[in-house]
Model the fold of this input.
Amino acid sequence: MDVNNIAKMFDFDGEIESINPYGEGHINDTFLIGIKNCEKKYILQRLNTKIFTNFSGLMNNILKVTEYLRAIVKSESKDPSRECLTLIPTKSGEPYYVNGSDCWRAYLFIKDTVVYQVIDSPAVFENTGEAFGKFISRLDEFDASTLCEVIPNFHNTLDRYNKFLTSLKADKVKRACTAECEIEFVNKRKNIVSAIVSALDKGELPLRVTHNDTKINNVLIDKYTGKAICIIDLDTIMPGSLLYDFGDSIRSGCNTAHEDEKDLSKVDFDITLYEAYCKGFLRGIGDKITQKEIDMLHLSAIIITLECGIRFLTDYLDGDEYFKIAYPEHNLIRCRTQFKLVERMEKMSDEMIQIAKKCRP
Ligand code: ADP
Ligand code: GN1
Ligand code: MG
Done:
């Protein structure tokens, strides 16, 4: 069934006028649905069911979490249709539509918002940090045992490293010889890949309900006020560490260039943005954060950036099976930007430690 017929399955308010590909996500296929004579728009998404094999578990997580957050937003007398994702059911009342091996879902489009691929304003990034901190704090009482683990070991950096070694050994598309520096870069850092996982295992870090994909284009910013109003892309909500969420926002937001910038001289770690995010995040999470988590904030940024680079490199070695690509070296280019950021953060880690201490409200 094509996207036009799929769209007709959903209970949209009015007649569909247009359907266009939308956004810059690496995983799902997203479409913007326009409605005749109406300002309302919708987002229609085909989930990547090769990656999200348990899509019913995933959708159940999203239903539970959005319902929970909606009640909190309402209790604060705020508008849940702007500050929460609203799933649009199918005409037969189901939360998603299954067509063969495909799973489709729809959301209300939250208008007058922008997403950033590169952040240029510390104020906007501070707001983003506050929103992500608040997100974790709001979910503090949520019963994590009711959520399924959508992708096991998603942020287990040690497991990501071991998978990289397996792909390197297999070298199935014979690309290892084109990535020798990057391979060496990873191997030199194998001593840090278990830091978060082992602290979690030892009980030194709390297991929380976390977002797990907090890159900057997964938060909608109000185009008039610059406030981060709604956190989206809830596919990977599951039990995890706050450090995964903090680290991934820093990885994506403190990069002075795009994730796939080819000219590495444009890629740098913006420490002013780091400070802004720290301030916002620590304000948003309030007293829910532990001292051990604060002590590891800088390291989480390094580890999650390294992890993301390892994932891009592994996918490059595997022949691009996971992330969407636009050209054959795309994953290698993405890996290089991540490793440049890791190097820059390593050089600035003392400053990063001081900033986290200073920003604690
Ligand atoms: P992916 O998993 O592929 O990254 P996302 O759920 O992040 O998919 O959606 C892709 C893009 O679509 C987002 O970066 C954002 O620009 C836009 N988007 C998604 N949901 C909404 C929404 N409810 N309102 C407005 N824009 C949205
Ligand atoms: C993917 O879905 P998207 O584009 O927001 C990926 C993240 C990576 C990110 C790198 C489910 O995020 O884990 O950090 O690309 N999402 C999944 O840009 O793997
Ligand atoms: Mg996304």
About this structure: The radius of gyration is 20 Å. DSSP finds twelve helices and eleven strands in the chain. The mean pLDDT is 97.
